[in-house]
Inverse folding.
């Protein structure tokens, strides 16, 4: 693997300060946004980058920020590789599609049609101009810098992203996809920012995919907020399929009202370093959040970290977490699920599972399901396992004439099914099969 | 079809202690014959079935097994299967995430390929699978489920027999196929197994109970004890066992 460490140490605060001053996405900022950025920037500076001395960053080392200067990318004029441009065409057929290359919106690749009345679906930049007051209520929210330093950084540096507003009782027939493509050889960073609002009883399926075209070493730092109204339903599928050497961070928040349902899936199979923080705030009774995930690590030095946080702040709220992963080579996965049943929340139901398969003795998993319970009437179960591929299953397949390598590939493919079972889009299931299939081929 | 000579097999237990399970077993099965291997618990019946299928938890210390023209012990499990050996497991394993249809089609097409046949396409495969499912009394919904996942004991056994019907092996080994089956299911599966009886196919039924033999009448019955066959005879031997139990053998 290529090492991208500059000879001299650089201070992240210095180059980030420069990035903050020179942000091409902030040129047309209204004063209110400028104030917000500044405030968040100061918070970030005060807090600093997370260090491995902190419990929730113990295995996830952000010191690469002190070794590399990531620049704002230029608007890339180069043609996309054919595989990617073909992908865009097929996606545009299936979904409403917003394409970003290196953080810049690309209208000629994007397609939006068939929107019901009152639905807003546009870029964050456009929303800042045309839906200022609606957006700013949701965009300018307070963030806990201690727990989410990368979110503060994103708030200070935020580039473009999407803004979605689905009015009451409206179901978006077509699913919506954000396709965030990395392109070019420079060491650059992307700071996407998304705001999605579902009014009461609204429904939306959203795919957020980070995909590499021909880039190598870059830093992508996503922040997304989903405000899910009463009895509203959201399917959210996140795909992290970054370049071999890319760094990826994402903070995703679900703010859930009464009886709302969120079905979130995280597929992480790329990148060299990736950290996903998913937070569900179950603020009102009956809110339900399901988080499923699959991570597949197939190369030396790869790290995939999921930190999930579920806050049961109201009675009758439910959550189900099930994450599974496969690790090969000298890779490391981190899983931390924290479920909190707040005082006054009673009748909470929370399930949390994490299963890992190690294909190599050098791979490492750090898994930690946590429950914090402050009420009596709760039903919680959690469990974590780390093991090898099932020898019995391998033998069974072999006795049916299936060769050992094929049998292994079949079982490796199967490990993703649990997460895929929650995906409602057939094309996405197929796509993930193919994507993971490519990794599995290398492992077999 | 199958010729086992002086087979000695041992296994290492958790305490690394070597335990001899098969101690000089001899068995000859000719094409077209149905053999029942009976015996008390711990006599080595299931070990015999598993050794034939190629499970590698066992140490083969002595002896030989010929399967048609091949030296069976030299072949890995998958080769044994592609050459026509099939084991219906006593406890079929659950494989979450592996679709039953996909599994069956992969297995069948692999075996067809080895026999120089063209693979079945999705349409032909499905119509074949559906007709065989009808025979074993399986709802079509089972095709879309994961292999054995959440199946009842009886459903798992039906799935084994379904695979047997699909793969059309030359040598079928049934390991306690009747355990956990109610009488209706047993009759259905016995009908399926009987339908496969032919001059070119052999069947070995490993069973503790005589009940199965009322539905599938074997040509030869063997009684195992202490790792070898201690008595062989025709189906009247089953009735003798029924009356006297296994005690008199030992």
């Amino acid at each position: 693997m290529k090492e991208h460490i500059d000879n001299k140490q650089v201070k992240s605060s210095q180059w980030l300060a420069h990035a903050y001053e020179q942000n091409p996405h902030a040129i047309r900022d209204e004063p209110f946004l400028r104030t917000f950025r500044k405030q968040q920037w100061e918070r970030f500076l005060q807090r600093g980058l997370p260090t491995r001395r902190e419990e929730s960053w113990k295995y996830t080392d952000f010191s690469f920020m002190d070794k590399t200067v990531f620049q704002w990318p230029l608007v890339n004029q180069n043609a996309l590789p054919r595989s990617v441009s073909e992908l865009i065409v097929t996606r545009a057929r299936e979904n409403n599609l917003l394409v970003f290359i290196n953080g810049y919106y690309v209208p000629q690749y994007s397609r939006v049609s068939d929107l019901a009345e009152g639905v807003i679906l546009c870029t964050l930049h456009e929303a800042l101009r045309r839906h200022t007051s609606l957006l700013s209520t949701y965009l300018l929210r307070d963030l806990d810098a201690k727990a989410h330093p990368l979110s503060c950084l994103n708030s200070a540096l935020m580039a473009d992203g999407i803004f979605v507003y689905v009015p009451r009782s409206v179901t978006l027939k077509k699913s919506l996809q954000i396709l965030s493509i990395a392109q070019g050889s420079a060491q650059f960073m992307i700071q996407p920012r998304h705001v999605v609002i579902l009014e009461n009883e609204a429904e939306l399926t959203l795919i957020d995919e980070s995909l590499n075209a021909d880039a190598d070493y870059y830093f992508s730092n996503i922040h997304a907020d989903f405000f899910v109204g009463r009895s509203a339903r959201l399917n959210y599928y996140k795909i992290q399929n970054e370049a071999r050497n890319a760094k990826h961070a994402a903070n995703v928040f679900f703010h859930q009202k009464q009886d709302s349902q969120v079905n979130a899936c995280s597929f992480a199979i790329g990148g060299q370093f990736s950290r996903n923080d998913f937070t569900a705030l179950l603020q009102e009774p009956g809110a339900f959040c399901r988080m499923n995930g699959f991570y597949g690590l197939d190369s030396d030095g790869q790290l995939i970290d999921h930190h999930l946080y579920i806050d049961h702040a109201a009675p009758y709220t439910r959550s189900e977490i099930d994450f599974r992963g496969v690790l090969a080579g000298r890779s490391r996965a981190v899983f931390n699920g924290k479920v909190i049943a707040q005082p006054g929340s009673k009748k909470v139901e929370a399930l949390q599972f994490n299963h890992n398969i190690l294909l190599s003795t050098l791979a490492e998993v750090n898994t930690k399901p946590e429950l914090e319970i402050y009420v009596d009437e709760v039903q919680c179960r959690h469990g974590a396992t780390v093991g090898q591929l099932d020898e019995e299953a391998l033998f069974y397949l072999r006795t049916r004439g299936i060769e050992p390598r094929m049998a292994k590939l079949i079982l490796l493919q199967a490990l993703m099914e649990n997460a895929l079972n929650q995906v409602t889009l057939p094309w996405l299931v197929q796509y993930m099969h193919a994507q993971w299939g490519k990794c599995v081929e290398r492992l077999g | 079809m199958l010729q086992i000579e002086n087979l000695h097999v041992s296994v290492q237990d958790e305490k690394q202690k070597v335990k001899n399970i098969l101690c000089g077993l001899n068995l000859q099965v000719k094409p077209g014959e149905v053999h029942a291997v009976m015996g008390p618990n711990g006599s080595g019946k299931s070990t015999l079935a598993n050794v034939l299928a190629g499970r590698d938890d066992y140490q083969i210390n002595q002896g030989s097994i010929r399967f048609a023209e091949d030296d069976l012990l030299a072949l890995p499990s998958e080769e044994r299967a592609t050459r026509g050996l099939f084991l219906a497991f006593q406890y079929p394993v659950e494989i979450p995430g592996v679709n039953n249809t996909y599994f069956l089609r992969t297995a069948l097409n692999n075996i067809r390929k080895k026999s120089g046949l063209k693979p079945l396409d999705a349409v032909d495969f499905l119509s074949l699978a559906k007709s065989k499912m009808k025979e074993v009394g399986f709802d079509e919904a089972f095709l879309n489920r994961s292999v054995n996942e959440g199946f009842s004991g009886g459903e798992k056994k039906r799935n084994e027999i379904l695979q047997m019907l699909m793969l059309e092996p030359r040598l079928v080994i049934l390991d306690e196929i009747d355990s956990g089956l109610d009488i209706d299911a047993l009759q259905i599966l016995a009908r399926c197994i009987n339908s496969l009886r032919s001059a070119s196919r052999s069947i070995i039924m490993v069973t503790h109970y005589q009940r199965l033999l009322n539905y599938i009448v074997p040509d030869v019955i063997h009684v195992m004890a202490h790792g070898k066959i201690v008595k062989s005879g025709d189906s009247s031997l089953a009735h003798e066992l029924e009356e006297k139990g296994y005690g008199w053998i030992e």
Chain B touches chain A through 28 residues (CB under 8 Å).
